[in-house]
Structure formats: structure tokens, C-alpha cells
């Protein structure tokens, strides 16, 4: 009884302090949100009242604004002390793409993960073995015409199918694609139905087989809670924010990994039609998920989404100004960028990938933490992946050193590089050690309960730990 009263008093106090904290804003905002039909939880600017989802798998497709999404997820993970699964060094900065993903590609210092986002070829079964059960799966698609044009220019030296084309002419390729394209060849996935391939499908399945395309779209729909659309990136982000119960601050971004305008071109309608015919599976997939995105926007209320998009852009402007003042980060082509932490990877000399460069005397007067956060906002994926691997490896080693000397009692684990999920439970920054994903308190919606930072050396079995499921050496079970 007394406990109940204390709890109620606590609820009242927190509610009142929340109200006070948001002062005058709250009333007008919630009223506006009410009229616009926005869901009552998570309306801006009051913080989301539901716990944030912290288990996210983002399938990074090629040339689809996915680097921007990856950067956003990296920053969210760092901010919330979440472990990001990263590739072993021999895989490069991708999970040994184009081979289908397996957990052997994951660096052992990044286990068990909360977030995964580096390039891979989707393999649902393997990901489900690696990631917690309540993981939210998200991916992004782009309109096939502009996507293919982008692939063609980005990979025209890497991909044999494109290299054979005289004068690097997209027109020539599309005139007779079978003359240049070899289905079984290395890198051929950049030359046909790349989205279907990245999602684990058969890029060379006969396009006449409408049943296949339909079944594949249904499969993607089952696997992913949200399929974003690059052409409607901000609207997609609003849906994502609601899906994950994240705050507006969590989805701010600056575009990374783009080409200069000079190396982009828009396709004539005839050419676009040829691209769609050649990439028929991707075209069906795109149409399906573009329609479903707009259905979801309709369900949430178009006015509500439009308002959030506006607030997102305003907040983005404020963030950029606070980071870079009036001296905006300069758009430069990769070769001109002096800060090597900011130089994006360039596939070849012909495509001009732009990144940001910063004036040497960036934001004097702001704290070094702020400067760091601002730098991360524009850091390209290869460098950011390295930075994250470094910091996670440090934490991993430190947590090993902090373990009490009980280890001789437990059988020594073989030093395999990757063990299946939860056989080797490691102290984790965001999950209680040995908390099984099937255990109580880890169902959907309770993700934030796992953000408590438990010191690795403690070795106290977490609530919900079951013998045999977490065999951490620190627990003499
Ligand atoms: C993340 O970890 C740092 C250092 O251990 C701590 O100061 C910070 O409060 C943690 N943040 C969250 C969101 O848990
Ligand atoms: C390649 O370009 C050159 C010069 O622009 C032109 O003369 C030639 O006909 C082109 N070749 C093809 C196969 O289009
Ligand atoms: C996506 O769907 C919307 C709504 O139906 C439509 O207006 C838009 O043209 C579509 N985009 C593309 C690229 O097909
Ligand atoms: C930053 O450096 C540039 C040139 O190096 C100089 O012209 C400018 O005055 C400096 N800005 C500040 C605020 O010190």
C-alpha cells in the first residue's frame, strides 16, 4: 500500500516537473498536435514518453542515401552507449559484401550488438541469430532510374559490366545490356536489380515471373518494420522516429557521401523507362514500398507528418548553425578535402564524391565534446567505422581487465573469433550481462530498461537471467 502511494507521488512529481520543464510550449504544441491528428505520444517538442527502441538493424542498400542513415545511427549508438556490430578487418568496412551476411563477419569486440548498419547482403536468419529478438528492421529504397544512373557512374571502373561499355555511355549500355552484362561475374550486382540483390533476392530471376516479384515484396514486408524511400527521406525519418519512439534530436542529419551536381544527370523519360525495364524486379519493389510509405503517412495524418518535417528541417538548421556558425562546412570534392578524417572514399577519378571540409579554426568557444559531435555529423562512413571499432575495442579490453580473478573456475572458452549469440555473453554497455532476450523485461517496448549501465566487473546476474543462457565467466553459476 505504502509502496503504491510512494509510486503515485513519484508519478505526480515527475509529471509536474515535466510540465514545468516544457513551460509555455507544451500547451500550444499539444493543442496543435491534437488538431493535426498526430499521435499523442512522441509529439514534438515534449520528449517521447515511451522508452526508445535501442535495437535496430538497418539494411544499408547501395546509392540510396543510406550513408546518411548510417551516420545517424552511429551517432545515436554513441550517444546512448549502444554497441554497434562492425565488420572484422578482413571484410573491410562492409560485412564481406557481396557474400550473404553471416555472424562470422562480425568483429568479436562488437558483440553482442544493439545496432547493425554497415553494408551487407541481407540474410534474415543469420541476423536474427545475432541481434536481440525485439530488433526493429529498417531499410531504404530509391527510385530505380536515378539509382541506376548513380550506380553506373559510381561503379563504372569497378564493375566489369560497365567497363565494357564504349565511352562509359549509359545509353549504349541500356541499348543492349546483355552485350555487356554477365550475371555470374564479380560486381555484377551493381549492374542489375541491386536492391533485390542487397535484400537477399535473385537479381536475375526472369522478370516475367510476376509471382516471384510479388512473393519477394511480401517477404521484405514481413522482415522489415519500415522501408524508407530516399526521395521522401524526411517523411521516412518522421515515420522512423515514431516507430522507434525517438526524439526529434535523434534523427537530425547532414547529407553525406554525395556526388557534385556536375557529375549527376537526370534521365530522359525514354532512358528512365529502359532502366526500369532492365531493373524490373527493383522497379516493382520500389513501387510497392513507395505506395506503402504513403499509406503509412496517410494513416499518421499528412498534416502531422508535414509539420514534423518542417520542425525537423528547422532543428537541422539550428544544429548546423550551432556547429559551424556562419562558416558552414564547405562542400568540397574528396581530393580537395584537407582533413583526412573527413575525406570520403572515391570509387574512381571520374566521379566527384563530395564531402565537407572544415575551416581549421572551427567553432572556437564551443566545448571539445560539442566539436566532436559536430565532426561526427559529417564524418564519412569508412572513418566513422574505424573510430567506432577503436572505441569499442578499448571498452572491450577494459572490461576484460576489470573482471575478478574467477576465471580458472570456469572452462576456458576457445578463442574462436565469433560465437553464436549469447553463448559468449560479454559485459555490455547497454544490456545487463546475461539478460536473455527471451527473458522478462526485454519484450518490445521495454528497450530502454536495458540502457542502465551496469559495471562489467559487478558480475551480478541480471534480472531475467536464466542458467545456461548466459554463461559469462564472471558468474559462477
Ligand atoms: C554513457 O556512458 C557514459 C560514460 O560511462 C556516461 O557518462 C553516460 O551517462 C552514458 N550515457 C547514457 C545515455 O547511458
Ligand atoms: C565514342 O566517342 C567518340 C568521340 O566522342 C565518338 O566518335 C565515337 O563514335 C563514340 N563511340 C561510340 C561507340 O559511341
Ligand atoms: C511515390 O508515391 C507518391 C504517392 O503515390 C507519388 O506521388 C510519387 O510520384 C511516387 N514516386 C515515384 C518516384 O514514383
Ligand atoms: C579563422 O581563420 C581564418 C584564416 O585562417 C581567419 O581569417 C579568421 O579570422 C579566423 N577566424 C577566427 C574567428 O579566428
Question: Explain this structure to me?
Answer:
The chain is α/β, with parallel strands linked by helices and 477 residues long. It has a five-stranded parallel sheet with strand order 2-3-1-4-5, with helices on both faces. A three-stranded antiparallel sheet has the order 6-8-7, with no helix packed on it. The chain is built from 16 helices and eight strands. The radius of gyration is 24 Å and the shape is globular. The chain binds 2-acetamido-2-deoxy-beta-D-glucopyranose (4 copies). Residues 80-81, 451, 453 line the site of one 2-acetamido-2-deoxy-beta-D-glucopyranose.
Q: How do the strands and helices of this protein lay out in sequence?
A:
Elements lengths: L1 H21 L2 H12 L19 E4 L6 H14 L4 E2 L29 E2 L7 H7 L5 E6 L2 H11 L5 H4 L6 H6 L1 H4 L13 H5 L11 H14 L2 E4 L3 H12 L13 E2 L9 H10 L1 H21 L1 H23 L5 E4 L19 E5 L10 H10 L3 H21 L76
Parallel strand pairs: 1-3, 1-4, 2-3, 4-5
Antiparallel strand pairs: 6-8, 7-8
One 2-acetamido-2-deoxy-beta-D-glucopyranose binds next to helix 13.
Amino acid at each position: 500500500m505504502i509502496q503504491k502511494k510512494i509510486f503515485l507521488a513519484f508519478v505526480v512529481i515527475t509529471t509536474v516537473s515535466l510540465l514545468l520543464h516544457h513551460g509555455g510550449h507544451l500547451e500550444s504544441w499539444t493543442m496543435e498536435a491534437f488538431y493535426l491528428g498526430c499521435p499523442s505520444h512522441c509529439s514534438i517538442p515534449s520528449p517521447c514518453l515511451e522508452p526508445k527502441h535501442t535495437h535496430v538493424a538497418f539494411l544499408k542498400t547501395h546509392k540510396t542515401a543510406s550513408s546518411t542513415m548510417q551516420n545517424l545511427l552511429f551517432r545515436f549508438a554513441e550517444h546512448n552507449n549502444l554497441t554497434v556490430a562492425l565488420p572484422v578487418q578482413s571484410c573491410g568496412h562492409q560485412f564481406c559484401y557481396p557474400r550473404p551476411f553471416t555472424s562470422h563477419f562480425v568483429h568479436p569486440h562488437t558483440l553482442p550488438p544493439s545496432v547493425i548498419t554497415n553494408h551487407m547482403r541481407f540474410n534474415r536468419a543469420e541476423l536474427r541469430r545475432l541481434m536481440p529478438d525485439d530488433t526493429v528492421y529498417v531499410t531504404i529504397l530509391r527510385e530505380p532510374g536515378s539509382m541506376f544512373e548513380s550506380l553506373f557512374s559510381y561503379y563504372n571502373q569497378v564493375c566489369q559490366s560497365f567497363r565494357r561499355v564504349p565511352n562509359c555511355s549509359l545509353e549504349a549500355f541500356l541499348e543492349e545490356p546483355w552485350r555487356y552484362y554477365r550475371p555470374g561475374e564479380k560486381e555484377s550486382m551493381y549492374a542489375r536489380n541491386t536492391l533485390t540483390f542487397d535484400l537477399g533476392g535473385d537479381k536475375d530471376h526472369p522478370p516475367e515471373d510476376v509471382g516471384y516479384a510479388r512473393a519477394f515484396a511480401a517477404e521484405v514486408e514481413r522482415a522489415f518494420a519500415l522501408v524508407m524511400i530516399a526521395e521522401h527521406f524526411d517523411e521516412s525519418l518522421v515515420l522512423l522516429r515514431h516507430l522507434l519512439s525517438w526524439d526529434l534530436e535523434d534523427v537530425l542529419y547532414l547529407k553525406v557521401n554525395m556526388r557534385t551536381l556536375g557529375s549527376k544527370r537526370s534521365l530522359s523519360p525514354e532512358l528512365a523507362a529502359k532502366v526500369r525495364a532492365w531493373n524490373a524486379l527493383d522497379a516493382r519493389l520500389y513501387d510497392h514500398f513507395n505506395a506503402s510509405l504513403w499509406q503509412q503517412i496517410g494513416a499518421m495524418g499528412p498534416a502531422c507528418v508535414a509539420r514534423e518535417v518542417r520542425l525537423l528541417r528547422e532543428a537541422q538548421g539550428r544544429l548546423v548553425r550551432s556547429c559551424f556558425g556562419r562558416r558552414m562546412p564547405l562542400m568540397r570534392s574528396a581530393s580537395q578535402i584537407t582533413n583526412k578524417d573527413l575525406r570520403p572514399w572515391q570509387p574512381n577519378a571520374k566521379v566527384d564524391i563530395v564531402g565537407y571540409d572544415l575551416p581549421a579554426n572551427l567553432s572556437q568557444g564551443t566545448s571539445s565534446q560539442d566539436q566532436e559531435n559536430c565532426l561526427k555529423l559529417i564524418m564519412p562512413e569508412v572513418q566513422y567505422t574505424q573510430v567506432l571499432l577503436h572505441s569499442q575495442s578499448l571498452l572491450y579490453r577494459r572490461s576484460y581487465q576489470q573482471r575478478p580473478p574467477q576465471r580458472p573456475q570456469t572452462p576456458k572458452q576457445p578463442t574462436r573469433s565469433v560465437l553464436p549469440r549469447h553463448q559468449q555473453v560479454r559485459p555490455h554497455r547497454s544490456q545487463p550481462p546475461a539478460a536473455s532476450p527471451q527473458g522478462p523485461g526485454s519484450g518490445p517496448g521495454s528497450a530502454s530498461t536495458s540502457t542502465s549501465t551496469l559495471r562489467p566487473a559487478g558480475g551480478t546476474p541480471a534480472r531475467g537471467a536464466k542458467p545456461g543462457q548466459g554463461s559469462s565467466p564472471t558468474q559462477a553459476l
